[in-house]
Amino acid sequence: MKDAPNDRNHVGRIAKPVLLSAVVIIALAMFSQGLCKPARAQTGQYAIKSNVNVVLLHVTVRGHDGTFASGLNESEFQVFEDRVPQKIESFSHEDLPVTIGLVVDNSGSMKQKRPDVVAAALGLIRLSNPKDEMFVVNFNDFASFGLPKNMPFSDQPEQLERALSSAQPQGRTALYDAIAYAVEHLKLGDHDKKALIVISDGGDNVSQHTLPETIALAVKSDAMLYTIGIYDPEDPDRNPRVLKELAKSTGGDSFFPDSTNKVRAICEGIAFEIRNQYTITYKSSNEKQDGSFRKVKVKVQAPDRGRIVVRARAGYYAPSNPGSAPESASAHDSSH
Questions:
Q1: How far is residue 280 from each of residues 74, 173, 226, 310, measured CA to CA in Å?
Q2: Model-level pTM greater than 0.70?
Q3: Residue 221 lies in a domain
Q4: Is 138 helix (H, G, I), strand (E, B) or coil?
Q5: CATH at residue 147
Q6: Most CB atoms within 10 A, among 64, 66, 118, 184?
Q7: C-alpha 179: how far from its chain's center?
């Protein structure tokens, strides 16, 4: 009987490695059958299962009169990657919830414009999908998060309004840093569909990030950027080309109203567009993991609809294998 405790300890020492080995074997078997996949899937009803080989596109389609072309079928869409036709894996025209960042200029020159900007942003918030998750980045010399530290996102207009109004306009314009900060925060969101709405009245004059770096970060994030430039004619820092390039490279759009009281209608139009897009996924026929930029083009063939305008992201960066040398490429407008 005295040997029993030693026997039990001996059995324990043997059982633990055996149990661990069994777990490993089961896990490997599940992986080989495709049950354990190195892929991120969004939780909830609106999941889009994806991995490094699947490309996700949100496509805006408008008729010649500017209205949204609804009711199109998958067969009417064509997707090309570096001019090579791709097979569409999934297609939908649902009002998917979105992770949205409001990136708002808080520099000194915005002081008189802020009330109109806040009202415009609130208009977008109220017309968005109730399941959207939103956050605010205010920027001047530095970018700062508008919501409380323990609240990464909110769907409450009152909380978001406080976030938009939490700082006094002052200082210069760190536009690129603010976008980079917002792109990083998007990674915390639960939704596959992501967008940034950027409102500014000037070019960048203080950021540490460069424009090419900022565009690359935005493209890699899969987020659509909608930019609104409310420039003063005499502003020496104004640079509408920057806002246009940021929007076009990500499948968004850019706007340049001649007065701030038009910003609200623009924001409401953005909210409506986001809720009326087509969602397409495809598995790239190019399996190389070389980190290169792949150009993407979406076309719609619907003769009965007349002239069609299609807008989607200009492309994406392929996954990078450490043993492959990435190819350099620039982003181009994908609308036609």
A1: 9, 36, 20, 13
A2: yes
A3: yes
A4: strand
A5: 3.40.50.410
A6: 118
A7: 11
